[in-house]
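Predict the 3D structure for this chain.
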Amino acid sequence: MQAQDIFNTVVAHLRKQQAKSNIVSVGRSMCVYCSPEGLKCAVGCLITDEEYSPDMETGQGVHALLADYPKIADRLGWSNRELLESLQLVHDHYQVERWEDGLQSVATYYDLTYTPPQ
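Done. Predicted structure below.
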């Protein structure tokens, strides 16, 4: 996938979902690619249902995901790893209400087109 296509897909997904994909374990919240309720994170929305495995939920991040799942790496592109990590950071560490700020920053940093929500 091209960087702009990845960005556009993630932006559309996060805007529609308006919620973090996480689980609560031992009293703390952890972001996951796909929650038991079916919510998906910024990178999780790029993983097809056929590609997804609960084994992905290691908490190790995008680099480990791409290394462990070469078909996903081939489709998304190793060259997009830093972009994927940046989008994941927005999902995981920004409050939902601040996602747009994070997404705009990501677009600026990677020289991508950002269109504010209507």
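The two ends are 26 Å apart (CA to CA).
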